[in-house]
Amino acid sequence: MARRGGRGVTPIPVRLSPLLVRTLIPPHRIGTYVLYTADGRPTYVGRSDTDIRRRLLRHCTDRRADYFTYDVHPSATSAYMVECALFHLLTPDASNRIHPARPEGHSIPCTFCLPQQQATLRDRIHAVPEHVRPTTTKDR
Question: Three-state SS string across 32-82, please?
């Protein structure tokens, strides 16, 4: 396991097995993770705001993935931001179809969605079809 800034992180996928999860990840840590197939394709992006070890152990019994990477975070807010980034980056390949939920008790927006939402809103406002625009005396 590589160490970066005092946080646990796996830069390359590790075999998803209960023994490795228990060995690598201390209990009661907040974190994010990505699950991968045997051929290295990301299949799921996830987060635990209480115990990433316990969450990954549940994935071991699901048998929907063969490998995983993880990152431990100092707060649920930090984990949420990283999960959002991973979600937006890996959505075409991962099975996640629903945007990550905000941590309980937090109202922070996804910084990766805001530019998209603002651009979409701007485009919708400025893209009013001709037949919907109000006529003016100049048009008559």
Answer: EEEEECCCCCEEEEEEECCCHHHHHHHHHHHCCCCEEEEEEECCHHHHHHH
pLDDT tens per residue, range 126-136: 555 555 555 55
DSSP state of 5: T
Q: Is the pLDDT of residue 73 over 80?
A: yes
Distances (CA, A) of 117 to 9, 79, 91, 110, 112: 31, 22, 17, 10, 9
pTM across the whole model: 0.74
105 sits in the region (left: phi over 0; alpha: psi -120 to 50; else beta) called left
Q: Look at residues 47, 116, 44, 34 and name the one whose alpha carbon lies nearest to residue 77.
A: 47
